C-alpha cells in the first residue's frame, strides 16, 4: 500500500541558517546531502518526491524520481494591524505550490510535507498515518478523508501545534495549506501574530466552519502564546474563558492528531539531534491517544485554574475572551472604507464645481474587495 500512495514534499531553502537540534546557532548549512539522504532512505516506500526550493537558491541535482520546483520567493506577508510582516506565508506558498503539483502528477492518497534541513524517520511516519486513520473514521464528520498529522501540541496554549512536518490525505493537506494562503494576512488569536495557533484557527475557519456550526466568535479566541507574557501585560485579562477549549477539543477529536514522540526526539535538525532541554517538546500522539476522546478533561488538568475562567458566557465574556482580531480587522476595513468615501465625496464636489479630476476615480470593486473575508 505504501509504494503507490504517498508523495513526500521537501520544502525550504537549500542553504539554511538558525538554531540546530542542540540549540547551537548555525550560520550557513548546505542541505543538499540531507535532502539526498531523505530520498535514498525511503524512495522504495513512496511514489515520488517533490522538492520545493526558491528560484534564487543554488541549483541541485537529484534522482530522476524527484520533481524540483523553484518558485519565486514571495517574501514576508503583511498582517492586518501589525507592523512586522509575517514569514508564515512564504512556507505556505512553497508548500501549496508543491502540493498542487503532487496531486496533478501523482494523484496520491497521502502527502507528507517535511523541511529541507531536517532528517526524519519517514517510513515510521508513513506507517503511523495509515494505521491511525484506520482506527476510526470520525474525521468524516467534518468532511475530511483522514486526520491531519502534526509534530506535537503545546497544551499550555490552546490551538498551538508544531509545524515542522505535516501529513495526511492529499486533499486534506491541500485544503489546510489553502486556508493558510487565503487567510495569510489575518491573525486569529490575540493582538500579535502567533503562528502555532493561527494555522489551526485558519484551518477551522476556512475548512470546518460550515460542518461545525459554531458561533462566529469561537474562531477568534483571546489567547496568548505564553501565559507568562500575559501576566506581564496587565492591561489584558490574565484568564481566558474555558469556552475557548470548546473548538480546540472538537479539532483534537475530529480533525487533527500527532506523530509519535520518537519522531521528534530522533529528528536531526541542521546537523544535530533534538535536545529536549533546548527546545519545547510539548505533547505527542501518546498523550493524544490517552486523552481521546475526553480532551477537555485532559486540557483542564494541564492548565492551572489561574488561566481558566468558568462562568455563563456573557456579552462581556465574549468581548474579553473572543474575537479581538475580528474587531481589529473590522476597524481596519472601516478606516479604508471611510478613506474611499472621502474620495468619492471629493469627486462629487468636483463634479458640482464643474471639475472632474480623473486621478480620483476608483472602481467600485476596489471598495467591495475590502469586505470579502475569504
What's the structural blueprint in terms of helices and strands?
Layout lengths: L5 E6 L3 E5 L5 E6 L1 H11 L5 E5 L13 E4 L18 H18 L4 E6 L2 E2 L2 H14 L12 E3 L15 E4 H13 L12 H18 L14 H6 L7 E2 L2 H11 L1 E3 L2 H5 L2 E2 L2 E2 L11 H7 L3 H8 L5 E2 L5 H7 L2 H29 L11 H6 L5
Parallel strand pairs: 1-4, 1-6, 4-5, 8-11, 10-14
Antiparallel strand pairs: 2-3, 6-9, 7-12, 12-13
Descriptive report:
With 374 residues, the protein is α/β, with parallel strands linked by helices. The protein has 2 domains: 311 residues; 36 residues, no CATH class. It contains 13 helices and 14 strands. A hairpin with a 5-residue loop joins strand 2 and strand 3. The chain starts with 5 loop residues before the first strand and ends in a 5-residue tail after the last helix.
